[in-house]
Amino acid sequence: MWPVRVPQVGVTMQAVIQDRYGSADVVRLGELPDPVPADDEVLLRVRAVSLNGSDRENLEGRPAYARWTNGLRHPRDPVPGSDVAGVVAAVGRGVTEYAPGDELYGELAGYRGGMAELVATRPKLLARKPDGLSFVEAAAIPQAGGIAHRATAHVRPGDAVLVNGAGGAGGVFVVGLAKHAGAEVTGVDRADKADFLREIGADHTIDFATQDWADERGRYDLIVDLVAERSPFRVHRALRPGGRYAMVGGQARILLGTAAVGFPVGRVRGKRVGVLVVPQSRADLESVTALISQAGFSPPIDSVYPLRDAQAAFARIAAGDSRGKIVLEVPEGR
Ligand SMILES: NC(=O)c1ccc[n+]([C@@H]2O[C@H](COP(=O)([O-])OP(=O)(O)OC[C@H]3O[C@@H](n4cnc5c(N)ncnc54)[C@H](OP(=O)(O)O)[C@@H]3O)[C@@H](O)[C@H]2O)c1
């Protein structure tokens, strides 16, 4: 068990600080006061925190929806990072389900605050870390696993599934779970990720720079789009009758267009075209973690950096060099 570190007034912790939007060089390691848990919060000593596409969006402040939730001019919460794994250091008076020393993992409400030695958060989104998972592996799962769990919930053996943005944080989990469900999977990403996509189970790959998957008519039962840039009028043509297009992330105008007209556009031909909303949920996290373990699928980890090298980790994800998850490890603390 990790030693319990109780927060003290006037004591500071190391944290990654982002006080404006921009490229990787806007993040720096700094000192912030130790958070003190409210009565209904746990104080988690973070041991690992993973990066997702949403962290890159929250760094850059684009697409526009990143500012709708984080602050129009600058991030309201200066500490990035949503997917954490760590050890409970202290609990508020009203918390009964967890105790100091418990090993937990999960996605933080508000998607911020995880890239620090300590974070205070309500426990309802956090789950007990399975013994078989390291902190790094556990931190890799929450957001990406949650997306994949919801996106592939109705996949049947033999379904043709296309994953647009297959080599990124969420895409690798969608590919893994769709294959586990027995689908024939096409992964779309940069040409230099094709070998990696085949390694994680994709049957076919498409280089988005040279081929437009939306030109294929009536080909897919499910399209999971993590980097949407096509109108609902275009994407529905690539679906088979009864097929479904799920927009997960991408351009803000496509998000608004898909939310506004996707439903009627899809219904014209008995298809479904819409935005996949993935709620943060402990039950989903536990269930996708169990599924990942059943599938014998290890969360693909691209690289692990120490917390102090957060800038390099952000630079790697922004440059498009990553294949799977990037994780920051947090030293045990003073
Ligand atoms: N709907 C919800 O409830 C919900 C919840 C959480 C998150 N999200 C959203 O989910 C989205 C996906 O996140 P993620 O973590 O998987 O992102 P990610 O790690 O950035 O992965 C995106 C992948 O797509 C590739 N790519 C870039 N441009 C492409 C293109 N034009 N065509 C095909 N592939 C392309 C990227 O390659 P490079 O890295 O080489 O550029 C990368 O491999 C984010 O927008 C996030 O906001 C949605």
From TrEMBL:
<dbReference type="InterPro" id="IPR036291">
    <property type="entry name" value="NAD(P)-bd_dom_sf"/>
</dbReference>
<feature type="domain" description="Enoyl reductase (ER)">
    <location>
        <begin position="22"/>
        <end position="328"/>
    </location>
</feature>
<dbReference type="Pfam" id="PF08240">
    <property type="entry name" value="ADH_N"/>
</dbReference>
<dbReference type="InterPro" id="IPR011032">
    <property type="entry name" value="GroES-like_sf"/>
</dbReference>
<dbReference type="Pfam" id="PF13602">
    <property type="entry name" value="ADH_zinc_N_2"/>
</dbReference>
<dbReference type="InterPro" id="IPR020843">
    <property type="entry name" value="ER"/>
</dbReference>
<dbReference type="InterPro" id="IPR052733">
    <property type="entry name" value="Chloroplast_QOR"/>
</dbReference>
<protein>
    <submittedName>
        <fullName>NAD(P)-dependent alcohol dehydrogenase</fullName>
    </submittedName>
</protein>
<dbReference type="InterPro" id="IPR013154">
    <property type="entry name" value="ADH-like_N"/>
</dbReference>
<dbReference type="GO" id="GO:0016491">
    <property type="term" value="F:oxidoreductase activity"/>
</dbReference>
